[in-house]
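tokens incoming
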């Protein structure tokens, strides 16, 4: 193998830059030419590639976002789009591609592999909705960002004796809500994976108030709805002034945590080593504190699960 390329796709996630850096530096360490593809699959289809040197990835390990930029590219879902992407890779004599993104990006990678392209996927999404890995790059940072915001909301919630509903990202996944909820001491966590009993949540608020509680934090995963759909109902049922906040895109930005930098560095380096070893259609997974690679078809066929232990613990701790 002489020449590889790397791209980031789907929603950006803190730590993607650290992963690109690891791919580039590992590639150069093994005397490979490394190309960066701009704007994900869109750049692959539209020939937006550039050779990257050792200094093109200097000073980025600590930065959020992705300097290669990212895109959601509908054309990649068509046969025509795949053909164009394959042609670009062939024109540039690229023998291996590293795709950093979520499960949608992995589906694109899978299709490229079916066309004979050597491809390795690296999970990068704040949603943490790829079952084959305990952590996707960016999830830890997003949870920390959400916790930081919730600490602040708790201050004002206490001062005003309020209920505060905090809406977090995650698309159809409740992972950010669950982890940020537990780690910020929220009373209730509403996620799409589990049924919600709003009556119970309101009863808990009322009992808490009777015991002298002066604030309530409720975390709502976006997959369940908007905080606006909840605050009036909660206020009416509990008689406690209720406010809401949507944390929004701040969860996608910011400097990656130490954990995400380590995860990205290991996954990036090992993805290149997988390509050199002749592997293809594999994705990097972090399971039980160990790094391994798995077939992408197998990874994508694993049923999505929420962390059941965490959910059980949340209901015991949030009182
Ligand atoms: P994520 O990778 O974070 O899950 P998306 O689901 O938006 O984000 O997917 C990112 C991109 O991956 C899409 O914009 C598209 O270019 C590509 N992609 C998604 N699904 C497929 C598919 N079934 N076939 C080919 N490419 C896909
Ligand atoms: O997949 C990451 C994510 O931030 C989801 O949590 C969210 O639902 C979605 O992307 C938002 O996408 P967009 O950037 O297209 O608004």
């Amino acid at each position: 193998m002489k020449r590889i390329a790397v791209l980031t796709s789907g929603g950006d996630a803190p730590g993607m830059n650290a992963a690109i850096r690891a791919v580039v530096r590992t590639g150069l360490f093994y005397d490979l030419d490394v190309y960066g593809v701009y704007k994900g699959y869109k750049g692959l289809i539209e020939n937006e590639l550039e050779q990257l040197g050792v200094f093109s990835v200097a000073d980025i390990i600590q930065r959020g976002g992705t300097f290669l930029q990212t895109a959601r590219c509908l054309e990649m879902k068509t046969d025509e789009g795949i053909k164009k992407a394959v042609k670009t890779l062939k024109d540039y004599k690229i023998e291996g591609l590293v795709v950093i993104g979520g499960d949608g990006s992995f589906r694109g990678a899978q299709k490229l592999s079916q066309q004979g392209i050597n491809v390795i996927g690296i999970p990068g999404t704040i949603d943490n909705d790829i079952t084959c890995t305990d952590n996707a790059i960016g999830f830890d940072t997003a949870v920390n960002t959400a916790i930081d915001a919730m600490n602040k909301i708790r201050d004002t919630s206490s001062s005003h004796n309020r209920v505060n509903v905090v809406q977090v990202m995650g698309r159809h996944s409740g992972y950010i809500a669950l982890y940020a909820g537990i780690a910020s001491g929220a009373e209730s966590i509403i996620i799409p994976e589990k049924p919600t009993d709003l009556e119970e949540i309101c009863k808990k608020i009322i009992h808490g108030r009777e015991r002298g509680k002066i604030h309530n934090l409720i975390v709502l995963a976006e997959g369940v709805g908007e905080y606006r759909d909840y605050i009036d109902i909660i206020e009416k049922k509990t008689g406690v002034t209720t406010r809401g906040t949507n944390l929004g895109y701040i969860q996608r930005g910011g400097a990656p945590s130490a954990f995400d930098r380590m995860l990205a560095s290991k996954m990036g380096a090992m993805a290149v080593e997988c390509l050199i070893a002749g592997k293809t259609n594999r994705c990097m997974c972090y399971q039980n504190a160990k790094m391994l690679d798995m077939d992408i078809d197998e990874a994508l066929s694993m049923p999505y699960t929420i962390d059941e232990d965490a959910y059980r613990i949340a209901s015991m701790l949030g009182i």
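note: The two ends are 57 Å apart (CA to CA).
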